[in-house]
């Protein structure tokens, strides 16, 4: 079993448990992580990043949320601990493990990226939010406490994500971003 298969197997097991026991039965794999993996690998190709590190980082970036470990605001640090343990259990080389753990730790904003692999995972996480608007609305309503009638709060929610993306990826993604913002907010902004 490859390290990627091992990690995905563990992730999917945690995801099944989360779906079964959570109130909203949110499927992290279908609604978020698979999109992050796909987009991160596209960016890895474009930027010449180590694809295995990027794929593992993308698979594990929200492992603390999927595993229901700790508070949401600390999911990057808790996830880094979980990723470290999983990769150690597999026997993954320490130098490569540190790079994957860095992807998990710094995925919340590519502005914090310390290398190209972290940038790929951080930007892909943001891009995934634009590709799953219903998930973003749910997050905004439930966790962000954004009111349904407040367009300026909605715009800020999407602009905050945009501002966390690297300049390099913004250049590539800008036409899609503009289209999404136009469809969502059109003449309202």
Walk me through this protein's architecture.
The protein has 189 residues and is mostly helical. It has a single domain, classed as Orthogonal Bundle (Hypothetical protein af1432), CATH 1.10.3210. It has helices at residues 3-21, 28-47, 51-60, 63-66, 75-90, 94-105, 116-131, 133-142, 151-164, 167-185.
List keywords for this structure.
189 residues; mainly alpha; 74% helix; Hypothetical protein af1432
Quick structural summary:
The chain is mainly α. Helices cover 74% and strands 0% of the residues. Helix 6 runs parallel beside helix 7, helix 7 runs antiparallel to helix 9 and helix 9 packs antiparallel against helix 10 (167-185).
Low-confidence stretches: none
* C-alpha geometry: globular
- What count of domains describes the coordinates? 1
The CATH superfamily name is Hypothetical protein af1432
The CATH first-level class comes to Mainly Alpha
What structural class results from the helix and strand content? mainly alpha
Counting DSSP E segments of at least 2 residues, the number of strands comes to 0
Give the terminus-to-terminus CA distance: 50 Å
Overall CATH architecture: Orthogonal Bundle
Could you spell the SSE succession in H and E letters? HHHHHHHHHH
Stated plainly, the CATH topology is called: Hypothetical protein af1432
